[in-house]
Design brief:
Layout (H helix, E strand, L loop, with lengths): L1 E7 L3 H8 L2 H8 L4 E7 L3 E6 L5 E12 L2 E12 L2 H11 L3 H15 L1
Antiparallel strand pairs: 1-5, 2-3, 3-4, 4-5
Amino acid sequence: MAIRTATFPAESQALWDAIHDPALARAAAGEVETEEIESVPPKLLVTKVVGEKAFGGTWTFEIGPAERGSTLTITERGEAYNPIFRFVSRFVMGHHRTIDAYLSRLRRRFAA
């Protein structure tokens, strides 16, 4: 499991709209297909990886209030089915790599 929290200078609805942009997800994670399994706008979104043979799992996006905008907490509950991919994920890439890339792109969006 990997968890990251970041604060953004945006209202919760603007953050909600941004996390629904498929281009943002593709830029951070590639062409991984996901589906929404839970959605409570503009506070909670849970997505699940579908169609992958090497890995799977869920991402939970939780949006909350902050003094100057909103916080976003992303929790990845990943599963690596292939032992080689499991090793690479843990020791080469790191469990937080995709979340960090996603948050970095999201920060750039709100910095503009």
